[in-house]
Write a structure and sequence with these properties.
The protein is an alpha/beta fold. The protein has a domain at about 45-135: 2-Layer Sandwich (Nucleotidyltransferase, domain 5), CATH 3.30.420.270. The chain is about 35% helix and about 25% strand. It has 3 helices and 7 strands; from the N terminus they run H-E-E-E-E-H-E-H-E-E. The protein has helices at about 15-35, 80-95, 110-125; strands at about 45-50, 60-65, 70-75, 75-80, 100-105, 125-130, 135. The strands form 2 sheets. The protein has a 5-stranded mixed sheet, with helices on one face. Strands 1-7 form a two-stranded parallel sheet. Helix 2 (about 80-95) packs parallel to helix 3 (about 110-125). The longest helix has 21 residues, at about 15-35. It is elongated, with a radius of gyration of 27 Å. The model has no long low-confidence stretch (mean pLDDT about 80).
Length: about 140
């Protein structure tokens, strides 16, 4: 008479719940990374330990295109020239009283170009904030 063992342990492993967790983690990371950096203009800002907490209404970015040429952006829209910056700021800000405008300029941009944007802001009564990266 043979003795049979009644309980056998199933050694298989189901990974279906693990794939569900990985999918949710991937989805979370995709959503979180798009919220971290919404600006598409890549600039290398100068460093400063003096950071302001004022929230700018709009941003002006100057990007060095090389050979003494520059690209001008208001928010993410390329406006082409300093006149385009002036027109776009007037269209966006209208008759607001001293709206804060953030100026983002690459480290390699000549001071002449930065001063020209500062003059546009002064002439139109905008409060200009120079954007820097923390030290």
């Amino acid at each position: 008479m043979a003795i049979k063992h009644g309980s056998k342990v199933d050694k298989s492993f189901s990974a279906s719940s693990m794939t569900d967790l990985m999918f949710l983690l991937l989805l979370f990371l995709l959503i979180a990374t798009t919220l971290i950096s919404p600006n598409a203009v890549k600039l290398i800002l100068p460093k400063s330990s003096n950071q302001l907490k004022d929230k700018a209404v709009t941003t002006v970015s100057i990007q060095d295109a090389g050979h003494g040429k520059y690209r001008y952006y208001v928010e993410l829209k390329e406006v082409g020239s300093l006149e385009g910056v002036d027109r776009e700021l007037k269209a966006r800000l209208g008759d607001q009283k001293e709206p804060p405008v953030s100026l983002h300029a690459d480290k390699t941009v000549a001071w002449d170009e930065i001063i020209k944007v500062m003059n546009i802001a002064r002439d139109n009564g905008y409060k200009l904030i120079a954007a820097t990266s923390p030290e």
